[in-house]
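Thread title: Can someone regenerate the structure for this chain?

I was given the following input by a collaborator and told the matching structure tokens would be attached. They weren't. Posting the sequence so someone can regenerate them.
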Amino acid sequence: LELRAPFPRIEVTRWRCKLRDADGTPRIDPATGHQLYSEEERWFSFDNRRLCCLQRAAAALWPREVRCEVVEVPQAMARTRELRKFDTRTFGYSVVIGRRDSPETEDWCWRTAVGLPVEQPPETGVAMQHSGLRWRRNDGGAPRGYYGRRARPPEEASSNELDFKRSVLLFVVVYMTLRIGVSAFQHSWWSSGTGAPDA
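Best answer:
Regenerated them for you:
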């Protein structure tokens, strides 16, 4: 049975999920100091609201097997778009419905909805160097968030701002030099009479 939703198809990608503790802190391999990721790639979606709608519809039809069309996002594209905010604490087994800053949120798990036991995130994983995103902690040890493509450390942001100003300055200097050169050439051209209009 194929679900026909009244909204656009959800986007999915294959990804090694980062393993986290219940408070969202990434798990660290004590031997290497690298963060732990799932041992194999799994399908994940970033469209939680639409995914939840589809799962609710599928749960209502349980135990019939249902499917839906999706859009696969290549990993290279997903890295630059959505993975910067990918921070599941449940290995994707459930989703939180509601605004992050709201105390009134709901955890939705399709397995719970149909009476199946809840799957537990894996305890072991593969130690890998994380790319692009850096985990930060505050003095209390609680997670504060990520520095990714859109939020950079202050020293890196300052360096980028300086590079931008230098680029703008170089552009202005080159532009003004060309304008002065063209004006001088035109002036000498008309002064010599070569470019004077015919009588």
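The chain is about 30% helix and 15% strand.
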